[in-house]
Specification:
Chain A: It is a multi-pass membrane protein. The structure holds 2 protein chains of 2 kinds. Chain A is α+β, with helices and mostly antiparallel strands. Chain A contains 18 helices and 17 strands. The longest helix of chain A is centred in the first third of the chain and has 33 residues. Classes of the chains: A alpha+beta, B alpha+beta. Chains A and B meet through helix 14 of A and strand 10 of B.
């Protein structure tokens, strides 16, 4: 354990500049310390912890974390690094204890601990300000509490039983709250719980109610408590971040109202929308922009001649639209006629307030998305033709429902073409000032076809403060999740970008640069451990099949063999499942993937290797004569240890920063075992 | 394993009251006594009789009958088979209990065949009705019809699906006299007389019709009664989606036909394995026949569409499971015998499929020998092996690249394009304010062009004409590349590339007198020199050009240049040398003959080849290249298609697909399932799963609610149908493709079978719970009502399946039962 601390903290202050994703997570820590709102695709707990570490250390959030390679200079960054390193260091004792609880074999646990300890990938990943140290910590803690709890099964409903059970719940919700990858460990624990309950159910000597009792206890501790805790974490997140910041635009107008300093925070508008009002329409999707037009025409070659309609992310008077009935002019603002509200299903025209052109669509191909229709500004001072008529359809609206600012999301359906006003989110070329394309989409169910009203200027109606639209916690909680999940799946690799593929990970094909410059840090696993893990995984399958076959064929085995086999197989079966659960789902993911996504799976496979290595050491000598027993055992063990330590020594410069040598005959050159390693 | 206990089990239907519970306990006892080896000898149990395996009469029906006689009600309910006799009178004597017995009499065969024959007849009628209408391209006929045409012309094409289905279509077209002259341009254009529409559409129509007797036999094989089997056929028959899909030149009916035949054969094989004297059947002709035909059919399914692999896996899982349980667990077999069985299965399920698969591709590649529209998806060597096209250009061109070679350099992997330059410089400033070298642009251009020609020279020589002895270029040597038309050298320097600022710019060197020296020497690295050798060969050598001064590699970045670069692809110098985008190969090649630049430019237009041997590519090389391109190169995705749907939506039939719309009226073809069938199948799936969980939990508590035979039948159903469903459905949640409703059809097939199976199981449960005959009649009445409902819905949506017209807008809107169904209304 001392070794852990030593390896983790050695030269922790080097490199003294921002490495790789520290640029992100350091920045997020700033946001927490400065309490400004931001958007990230991961849940908040990990970043909150980093922020907390920084805060405890006296870091004031003043460093900008602009890009990798920036020097920290005199900012207090060590607190955050130490915090992460501590969480990372705890992985080693945790995996030691996990294997101990699974097998009660000292060599197996020690080996597993060593495999985690001596892996450069784990080491590197756990030394920097990243989300991975807390995530790995919580995942392995979940697994540890799970096996610990399993071993309490003989004294159910005792105090330790309850304690361990509820701590599984806590750890699970923490894992999920750091990164959504934590969901896999939840599934893992779920499988284990089902297996446990199945065991209990099969115990005929006890009544069914006993199983129900067990079930209720688990439901309470593994479903109710984690859910509450998870929501609690989000509550803190949303409560801490109450200042307007760079993340505002990702959320809906109603969400932004709650952020101090946001322009919506103090504004006010009439609640209902009436004919004659001046409106701004916002595309009601993640980071949607305002419907916009300006005094420029579409170029001749793409069906030009009429005025451009775009969406534009900034506030501008060209975003303002005047709403009219399709067949008559609205009364002026100082008339005394009764106010005419806009209702679900109404036919209307939208006149661009500055240029006096009507929002118009016709059977001309849209500039970029050529399967859809072009939308233009047409007419003169609000007089146009029947192609300017739109029908407003409030989402889940009822007949005669009055359209309300902010609250309602609606579609605008073109009366003649039956298509929906849509922002395709594709940038127009220079002639369109690189604003986003707006089209009329025949697919009316496109999620991009939904709009809401943000500004509503109509003096005849009383203004209501925006604050009345403010969402309560649950709505904000749900919206944050929708935005998180959309953001996550939107992280697509850019075309031509070299991305990491899941099949490359277990074979340690390509690492990840953490820091360039003079002191290089390169994230790469210890090849001995990684390739060893693969070998032992295959070994496990062979063992499993051969044991199955022998059982089926009724081969008689000695009790010691059976004991060894059962111990190794049952523990490894679960670990193998854990590995699968943390690895396979990445094959189906379309988002951009990185090498470090493999590390949770690596935890499982390393533990499995430890157990299987122990099994091999115990059972290979069994087949040899008695007198060679001890010597074989010791020689295998010491051989394994020597190889592990030597490989660690060999590659350790990768972790602690190697000085870059330009020429190929540097000291590091002989470490290029694979040509794909780029250090 | 189910040693009955004396615990009293509360029966699951709590509303039954005490009396019913008692009844059940009595039933239990009977069953239990049977478990203790046939104490009730009075009535021989047909299910235990090994002769009766595969009996058309299902066992659970017989059982309650005898129980009733013995224990429960005095007014014993008439058995189901009796009722069947009554209700099935019209179908002749098809109800004889021993439908599928071993007796080889003619009479039995006739009995057995009547019901499926009837179904098959109706299937043929529905599938072939108005088969050549509409006489225009419907949906994906656009592709499959075109491919069938290309087969007639023996022209190579590239498609990401395997060829068997298209080959069958092409064969039908060939027999129908199709010459391949029709141009499949867009959905909706009319066929002319040269296209044998009826013949080509009859392939899916026939396979789609055969599906119905197939599912009938599968249900019999799963030990269900023939009425249940007929019900399954009925569900298949009257599902609009299956009908529509079988009516046009589409792959799914063919796929389903092969998959279901394969499953049936595997089930037959299983029946042999599980029969009382499995030993005797081993390696018999029937044994081999079912095993091999199962494997072959399943492979054929795979060869129609790659999703067929899930059917194959299902077959493999079933055979493997039986091997594990019945062969490995059978201690009376010696090690040698077990090994023999393992080998036989390995041969049938690995070697045979491999042979079939390769065979299908052999036919594919040996038929398609002419160059065609998709050539550029393949490597230069592949193209050169096709008649016409590239081969006519490259045939006879020199093999070895020498000093003075004129070449075009093709980006070897991924999207095809050629290294290109033109007389235009990079803009001084880019849109994002970065500066450039303002030297001549170098791009990757997707079309053949005179500007794609480059001349390869040694840095230290100035002459360019090729003279004997040839100065060959080998791996590791340094060269310069001179652009043929502008005469400038390929150059790179430490300036950020236009579209990828992290990479290095590549240009043709122009001396602007700004102390930016030419860095125009490149080192040749041949990546496949183990096979080709060190000397640079045209077509075959895969070459990387490494910039000598900065050691970056010439690379295709995947980004497009803006308008100033004519939207061509960007070429950069990339530090990441080891990646597929840095690999180029020489495609067209000739030797320079003239020293003078003007003459050289003239020469670029002429073709004067030094004759050498033509390129020959073996089958295996072509096969592997095609495999790699099909499986690993992601093909174009249809983005923003209007009729895409997600797997969750398939369960409740949220969206259909518009296949065709008549230009004259609103008559249209819209792929849409029979909503009644789909919903009940989804419900049935839920009910089956809940029952399964319920039974498992109860058995864990040692409570056996249903008879062992019923349970075995229920379990086998799950093993085959539920697992089959999951295999065909679950993977869609993890794929990145654009998904359409017709992707669901294979899973749907299993779901429909499950639905029919569940109906019989529920009927069995009713009989188990309610002694009164009344409830049985109720049950049958409900099923009949349900079936007539299905018929009505089927009939209602028939116009959309066949595209019958003319229809007006209100008729179409009348069919729009769900808001999300987007029918096309373009006429009043």
């Amino acid at each position: 354990m001392i070794a852990t601390v030593a390896t983790r903290f050695y030269k922790l202050d080097q490199p003294d500049h921002v490495c790789w994703d520290e640029a992100h997570f350091g920045k997020y820590a700033n946001f927490y310390i400065n309490r400004t709102f931001f958007f990230d695709v991961h849940p908040p707990l990990g970043k909150m912890l980093i922020g907390l570490f920084g805060y405890l250390d006296g870091y004031n959030g003043s460093f900008h974390f602009d890009k990798p390679g920036d020097k920290f200079e005199d900012h207090q960054y060590m607190g955050m690094r130490i915090g992460c390193a501590v969480m990372g260091a705890l992985l080693v004792p945790l995996s030691f204890l996990t294997v101990w609880e699974m097998t009660f074999s000292l060599p197996a646990s020690t080996l597993s601990g060593l495999l985690i300890l001596l892996d450069h990938g784990m080491l590197t990943l756990n030394r920097f300000i990243l989300l991975d140290p807390p995530m790995l910590f919580f995942i392995s803690a979940s697994v540890y509490t799970m096996v610990k709890f399993h071993n309490q099964r003989h004294r159910p409903f005792s105090l330790p039983w309850w304690l361990w059970l509820s701590s599984i719940g806590v750890m699970l919700s923490c894992s999920v709250a750091v990164k959504f990858v934590g969901i896999f460990v939840v599934i893992f624990v779920g499988f284990r719980t089902i297996a446990d309950l199945w065991e209990i159910l099969g115990d005929i000597s006890r009544p069914v109610t006993y199983t129900v009792k067990h079930f209720m206890a688990r439901a309470l501790c593994l479903i109710v408590i984690p859910t509450l805790l998870y929501m609690g974490i989000f509550y803190v997140h949303l409560a801490v971040l109450n200042n307007s910041g760079p993340g505002d635009g990702f959320y809906s107008s109603a969400f932004q109202v709650g952020l101090k300093g946001n322009y919506l925070h103090d504004g006010s508008t009439p609640r209902e929308v009436a004919y004659g009002a001046i409106l701004t329409l916002k595309n009601s999707v993640t980071s949607g922009a305002y419907l916009h037009s300006h005094d420029h025409l579409y170029p001749e070659e793409i069906g030009g001649g009429q005025q451009q309609i775009t969406t534009y992310a900034h506030k501008d008077e060209n975003n303002q639209w005047h709403i009219k009935r399709h067949n008559k002019m609205p009364p002026s603002w100082n008339s005394t006629k009764p106010v005419d509200f806009v209702r679900h299903g109404d036919l209307l025209r939208l006149e661009h307030f500055v240029t006096g052109r009507n929002l118009h669509a016709h059977r001309v191909l849209a500039p970029i998305t050529i399967k859809q229709f072009q939308v233009t500004g047409y007419g003169l001072d609000g007089v146009g033709d029947t192609n300017d008529i739109w029908r407003v359809e409030i989402e889940d609206g009822e007949q005669n429902q009055v359209l309300e600012t902010m609250v309602h999301r609606f579609r605008l359906i073109h009366y003649n073409l039956g298509c929906a006003l849509t922002c395709t989110k594709k940038k127009l070329p220079t002639w369109g000032f690189e604003q986003d394309e707006v089209t009329c989409n025949p697919n009316k169910r496109d999620p991009n076809a939904i709009w809401n009203i943000e500004e509503n200027i109509f003096p005849r109606l009383p203004n209501v403060s925006f604050r009345s639209y403010e969402k309560n916690f649950f709505q904000r909680f749900i919206e944050s999740h929708v935005v998180l999940i959309n953001g996550n799946s939107a992280l697509k690799p850019k075309e031509g970008e070299a991305t990491s593929k899941p099949w490359m990970w277990p074979i340690n094909l390509r690492g990840q640069f953490f820091s360039g410059g003079k002191l290089q840090v390169y994230l790469l696993g210890n090849p001995i451990i990684w390739w060893g893990n693969l070998v032992f995984m295959v070994f496990y399958i062979i063992l499993w099949v051969s044991v199955g076959v022998r059982e089926k064929r009724g081969v008689v085995m000695t009790p010691r063999e059976i004991m060894l086999q059962n111990r190794a197989l049952s523990a490894c079966g679960w670990l193998w499942l854990g590995w699968l659960l943390h690895y396979l789902p990445f094959w189906g993911m379309t988002r951009v993937l990185y090498f470090h996504h493999y590390f949770p799976a690596l935890l499982f496979s390393s533990m499995m290797t430890g157990i299987l290595l122990d099994y091999a050491m115990e059972s290979i000598p069994l087949s040899l004569p008695q007198k060679m027993f001890n010597s074989t055992y010791i020689s295998i063990l010491s051989g394994a240890l020597v190889i592990l330590f030597y490989s660690f020594y060999l590659f350790s410069p990768l972790v602690y920063g190697l000085v870059r040598y330009a020429d190929s005959n540097s000291t590091m050159h002989h470490l290029h075992w694979l040509s794909t390693w780029e250090f | 394993m189910k040693e009955p206990t004396h615990r009293r089990c509360v029966f699951f239907n709590s509303s039954l009251g005490e009396k019913m519970v008692d009844t059940e306990v009595k039933n239990r006892k009977v069953n239990r006594s049977k478990g203790k080896n046939e104490k009730n000898k009075e009535i021989p149990n047909p299910a235990v009789d090994p002769r009766d395996e595969g009996d058309g009469e299902s066992t659970p029906e017989a059982l309650p009958e005898e129980l009733a006689e013995e224990t429960v009600a005095k007014k014993a309910s008439p058995s189901k088979s009796e009722k069947k006799k009554r209700s099935g009178g019209k179908a002749g004597a098809a109800t004889a209990g021993t439908a599928l017995s071993d007796l080889p009499t003619l009479a039995v065969t006739c009995h057995f065949n009547l019901l499926p024959m009837l179904l098959f007849g109706v299937a043929l009628a529905t599938r072939f009705y108005a088969l050549d209408q509409p006489n225009s391209i419907v949906f994906d006929e656009l592709h499959y019809g075109r491919y069938a045409g290309l087969y007639q012309k023996q022209t190579f094409f590239f498609d990401s699906h395997p060829p068997l289905g298209k080959q069958l279509l092409a064969l039908a077209g060939y027999l129908g006299g199709f010459q391949g002259d029709f141009k499949f341009d867009k959905i909706g254009s009319s066929y002319n007389a040269s296209v044998p529409v009826f013949a080509m559409r009859s392939v899916p129509a026939l396979t789609g019709s055969l599906l119905i007797p197939l599912v009938y036999m599968i249900m019999l094989q799963l030990n269900y009664s023939q009425w249940t089997a007929a019900l399954a056929g009925f569900l298949f028959l009257f599902d609009n989606a299956l009908l529509t899909q079988s009516h046009y030149m589409l792959m799914e009916p063919i796929l389903l036909f092969f998959a279901m035949s394969g499953v049936l054969c595997v089930l037959k094989f299983r029946a042999l394995e599980r029969s009382g004297n499995a030993q005797a059947h081993s390696y018999s002709l029937r044994w081999w026949g079912w095993l091999l035909s199962g494997a072959i059919f399943l492979t054929c399914a795979l060869c129609v569409k790659y999703v067929g692999v899930y059917s194959y896996l299902l077959g493999l899982a079933l055979v493997g499971h039986d091997f594990w349980e019945k062969v490995l667990g059978n201690l009376s077999l010696s090690k040698k015998q077990v090994f023999g069985h393992a080998c036989a299965r390995f041969f049938a399920f690995f070697m045979v499929p491999l042979m079939v698969y390769v065979g299908v591709f052999y036919i594919h590649l040996s038929t398609l020998v002419n160059a065609g529209p998709h050539d550029s998806a393949m490597s230069s060597a592949f193209q050169a092996s096709l008649e016409g096209g590239l081969s006519s250009i490259v045939r006879g061109q020199p093999l070895e690249v020498v000093h003075g070679s004129q070449v075009t350099l093709r980006h070897a992997h991924g999207s095809p394009c050629w290294l290109h330059s033109h007389a235009a410089n990079y803009p001084v400033k880019y849109a994002d304010k970065r500066g450039s070298s303002h030297q001549q642009q170098v791009t990757c251009y997707v079309a053949k062009d005179i500007n794609n020609w480059w001349i390869i020279k040694r840095p230290n020589r100035t002459d360019l004409a090729v003279a004997a002895p040839l100065d060959r270029i080998s791996h590791g040597e340094e060269v310069q590349l001179v652009h043929g038309i502008t005469g400038r050298n390929l150059n790179s320097h430490n300036v950020a590339a236009p579209a990828s600022p992290t990479k290095q710019e590549v240009s043709c060197y122009v001396d602007h007198n700004v102390s930016m020296p030419a860095q125009d020497v490149w080192r040749v690295e041949i990546t496949n020199r183990e096979e080709i050798g060190d000397v640079w060969h045209a077509l075959e050598s895969m070459v990387r050009l490494i910039h000598v001064n900065t050691s970056v590699a010439l690379a295709f970045s995947g980004r497009l240049l803006p308008e100033w670069g004519h939207n061509q692809h960007e070429i950069v110098g990339d530090v990441m040398v080891n990646q597929p985008n840095t690999i180029f190969n020489v495609e067209e090649h000739r030797y320079t003959r003239n020293e003078d630049e003007k003459d050289r430019q003239l020469e670029l237009m002429t073709t004067d080849f030094i004759p050498l041997e033509p390129v020959v590519m073996g089958f295996w090389e072509k096969f592997f290249e095609l495999q790699i391109r099909m499986l690993f190169i992601s093909n174009e995705n249809v983005q923003n298609h209007m009729y895409t749907s997600s797997p969750w939506e398939w369960l409740v039939l949220t969206r259909g697909i518009a296949y065709w719309v008549s230009p004259e009226s609103n008559a249209q073809i819209h792929l849409l399932g029979n909503i009644f069938v789909w919903y009940s199948a989804t419900v049935a799936l839920g009910v089956y799963c809940s029952l399964l969980i319920f039974y498992l939990l109860r058995q864990r508590r040692q409570c056996y609610d249903i008879h062992e035979e019923a349970w075995n039948q229920f379990r086998t159903t799950g093993e085959v149908l539920l697992v089959g469903y999951v295999f065909h459905f679950l993977p869609y949640f993890f794929v990145d493709h654009t998904l359409f409703l017709h992707h669901y059809l294979p899973a749907l097939a299993f779901k429909l079978l499950l639905n029919a199976a569940l109906v019989e199981h529920l009927y069995y449960l009713t009989r188990l719970v309610f002694a009164k005959q009344f409830f049985n009649w109720m049950c049958i009445l409900i099923v009949l009502t349900w079936m007539s409902g299905i018929l009505m819905v089927f009939n209602k949506f028939l116009p959309l399946s066949y595209g019958l017209g003319p229809m007006n807008a209100s008729q179409i809107l009348d069919l729009k039962l769900r808001e999300t169904w987007d029918f096309i209304v373009h006429k009043p």
